[in-house]
Amino acid sequence: MVEEKNLTLEEQDRIRRMKWWHEARFGMFIHWGLYSVIGRHEWAMEMEAIPVARYEQLTKQFNPKPFPAREWAKLAKRAGMKYMVMTTKHHEGFCLFDTHYTDYCAPKTCGRDLVAEYVKAARSEGLRVGFYYSLMDWHHPDGARCAEDEAARKRFVNYIHGQVRELCTNYGKLDILWYDVNWPLSAEGWESAKMNRMVRELQPDIIINNRSGVPEDFSTPEQHITAESAGRAWEACMTMNESWGYHQADDAWKTPKQIIRNLITCARDGGNYLLNIGPKADGSVPEESVRILNTVGKWMDKYGETIYAAEPCDVKRSVFANFTRKGTTLYVHVHFWPGEEWAIGGLRTGVKSVRLLPRGEPVEFEQNEFRVRFKGLPAEAPDEPVSVLALECESVPTQDMMFVRKNMPRNSQLR
What we know:
The protein is of the alpha/beta class. The chain is 30% helix and 18% strand. The two termini are 37 Å apart.
């Protein structure tokens, strides 16, 4: 680790701002808008080439039940999530917040500032607050022609910067600004550096993602888990089925086990996991999403200590388990339970003790230069969807499977 005294002031400030975020590891994404009325994916307007005038009529049907964000925040907390990020404006251009730049917004169509309701709900549950904001806009007259017409670009950039200013001014302290889709302009065209300087002046502690065309604080792999290099912060954003917005017919749900395995992989590699819900038009969360997150939450109640504040882990190789690390403690997350006796190969660090979580019962083990072997374990998985062992090691655990391949004796001697 680079000593703080060798870091620039900007780097030191980023460490300060992002400390809570690195410890959190798990957040909730919320995609909600007029597309929830259609119930056929958040890209329905473009994918079905729905005319703007016809799409605008959806505002007459978008009248959510009272304060649905309270349900989202309670669900996020039950699931073990530590922060939330909600769409304030998606590509469709409809704003869920109060803005004087357009009448195409919830306060002027249904009489409610839905972003204000969300902020209040998140804070009431002790969760950090993030705003998603799409730069691309299918509704604004300058949303496409700004790429070819300088006057249109100036108007549109003024519109975008103005709305970002409103979001950073009217809702108290914000923790995350999550831009999306910077089509059709470059970072220079959006004047992104100027915009983000404004954001930081208004919100000194905020964390900003990389989708305004400049790197800022963290990267955002979408629908896949890919760690950044050189220690750069990253967050994998993923859906529970195949849609971000509510899609009535999308039944391709991930299992709670897959969700937990994804979370473990993100924590293992030093990243965060931003998992999405797509509420219905009335604001209610699809039943399958609730079921999945409740199951994840029950697991997190017992094993959250293995995820929160987890540090990058060098141990990665197994056909039935994954790993996280905090200090010199290695957590073995077993998703396919092998039975009473099994081993982890290539562990090059001495193991002092092994416990079966969550109760901490001691586990018998033996170790040589090639593996650590566990004995006397239950024949069936002691927990579902993933069981966990905690290994207290003599130093930060490392794994070297090539050492095993090259040096394992090529004879019949039992080891």
